[in-house]
Amino acid sequence: MTDIAPFRALRYDSGSVELERVLAPVYDVVAPQDRAVYYDRDPYNALRLVLTRSVEEEAAADYADVARRLAKWRAEGVLALDPDPALYVLRQRFTAPGGDELERVGFFGALRLEDYEKRIVRPHETTLAGPKADRLKILRASEANLSSVFLLYEDRELRLAEIFAEALRSPEALSVTNDEEIEHTLAPIRDPGAVVRVRAFLAERPVVMADGHHRYETALSYRDERRAASLSSDLDAPHERMLAYFANAFAPGSLLLPIHRVILKLPPAVGAGWRSRLPEWKQRTVRVSGIEAIPAALEEHLAPLRGSYAFVSDDGSGTLQIFSRPAGEELSVRVIHREVLEDVFHLGEDAVRDGAVAFPKSALQAAREVRVGRGTVTLYLNPLEPDDVFRVTGAGETLPQKSTFFYPKLPTGLLFRT
């Protein structure tokens, strides 16, 4: 099913740059005001390849400068093409929001692009047209994969773990720590037998898109453009594949975090008595001493309800309201959207799309929103389980928007594919 191949990565020469200074976050989490920070940090910072210095420059950008910059950096020896094709293992050691020290191990390969209809690469959310148009301009100009997509596979028995561990013991392994204090260790898998085993394992199963839907769909559009412009149908042409990172959703360290909901303004028809409109939900209250106590309160009172439909509401008063009821087959986040956001708050998909609800990933940030007046009610949610993601996507469905957050994200600059 899933067709991956080794490739010759284009990588920074660690003797020419300080790797810590050239890495950047994935482009879609960089705040507008932070672009200049990465541009000014180092003349070879990877953000210079994936974003303009200012948002205002994007509309007119044709990104021809990206192609020139890539060529210049290669000529200067700052970027160098690996001599032989390989798969590349990435270990990320990080501190989870709850304080646990974790590590996630995955790998990079060149993924054969497949239309969603084939059910080989399965999306978990829908996308917007605007971001794809901008990414397509960069891909046309650079003819390179400058950011990776992030895919999940299922390996409950950890059958690939020893292959990855062996690669990470190689003297070729390089480590770098980014601004978030996440240690990234990258190592090639060059052993032909190991490469064959990894490819064969993935060939037996589909993969689920965790992050990078816009990038993947952009690569599909570019592939189709190149096919239309070509007189041959070469399925081994570079545009038939893209740079992809694969992680075992069921391995220790594969962390799915919740995305919370902040209702920015209560519709006039709702009023303060909205809780009485959920008679089928069991309700109880918990007092918290301050905003810093909220994560611990959620761990104590919401986390144990992961087998139920459950959420916690917070109006900033210091009293948290815990809601729960027995779960059925439907996803909890989908039930909460329908029965709470839509039926109680009268906020349907159009209102959510128009900005009536904010989606902070941090419980502390969500709590601050209602305490500084930017929001009226916060709804804290539990995270989804990997089984939820595979069950929904396996049925050909997508998750509600902003349902889950796969942590940590992949930085830009570890490696590229031309």
Helix content: 25-40%
The end-to-end distance, rounded to whole angstroms, is: 24 Å
Q: How many helices in DSSP terms? A: 13
Total count of strands: 19
Could you say which overall geometry the principal axes of the C-alpha atoms support?
globular
Spatial extent as radius of gyration: 23 Å
Q: Would you tell me the overall average pLDDT?
A: 93
Low-confidence segments, given as residue ranges, are none
**Largest sheet features:** 9 strands, mixed
Class derived from helix and strand content:
alpha+beta
What is the percentage of strand-forming residues? Answer: 15-25%
Short description:
The protein has 418 residues and is an alpha+beta fold.
Describe this structure in words.
It is a single chain. The chain is of the alpha+beta class. It has helices at residues 19-22, 35-41, 47-50, 64-75, 129-142, 161-168, 192-203, 213-229, 294-301, 332-342, 349-353, 363-371, 386-394; strands at residues 4-5, 10-12, 79-81, 87-95, 101-112, 121-122, 149-153, 174-177, 183-189, 207-211, 241-248, 255-258, 261-263, 282-287, 308-314, 319-326, 357-358, 377-381, 404-407. Strands 1, 4, 5, 6, 7, 8, 9, 10 and 11 form a 9-stranded mixed beta sheet that branches. A 6-stranded antiparallel beta sheet has the order 14-16-15-18-13-17. A hairpin with a 4-residue loop joins strand 15 (308-314) and strand 16 (319-326). The radius of gyration is 23 Å and the shape is globular. The two termini are 24 Å apart.
